[in-house]
Write a structure and sequence with these properties.
Blueprint: H1 2-5, E1 11-13, H2 16-26, H3 41-53, H4 57-66, E2 69-74, H5 76-79, E3 93-98, E4 103-107
Parallel strand pairs: 1-2
Antiparallel strand pairs: 2-4, 3-4
């Protein structure tokens, strides 16, 4: 179902575990997904931690633009990094898939 909701030309930002699952299940590009197959893994792991854990919304938006990320997963694994990503305050996010504890958002300004 998620495969049909994601434009394969845009990357998905999620936790490392969810990135691995998404890449394997859908074949779509993820920002980070596997220790060996992710270029600049350590740098990206740090950016991922900062995005969800400490960056302001303006830094988060800049990061998304610079990395061509147009989808964001918000679930327990992402929230474990910290409280800084607040999707309900972003007017340009649209929920394209939701499960019991996880939502996939599209950044509408990407399209």
């Amino acid at each position: 179902v998620i495969r049909q909701k994601i434009d394969p030309s845009h990357a998905v930002l999620s936790s490392l575990t969810n990135g691995r699952i998404l890449a394997g299940a859908t074949g779509h590009e993820v920002f980070i997904g596997h220790v060996v197959e992710t270029i600049h893994f350590e740098k990206k792991q740090g950016q991922l931690t900062q995005f969800f854990g400490s960056w302001s919304e303006s830094l988060q938006r800049e990061f998304l633009r610079e990395n061509y990320v147009c989808y964001i997963v918000d679930g327990p694994r992402e929230r474990a990094y910290g409280p800084r990503f607040e999707p309900l305050t972003w007017p340009d996010l649209e929920a394209v898939w939701s499960g019991p504890t996880t939502t996939l958002y599209a950044v509408t300004t990407c399209f």
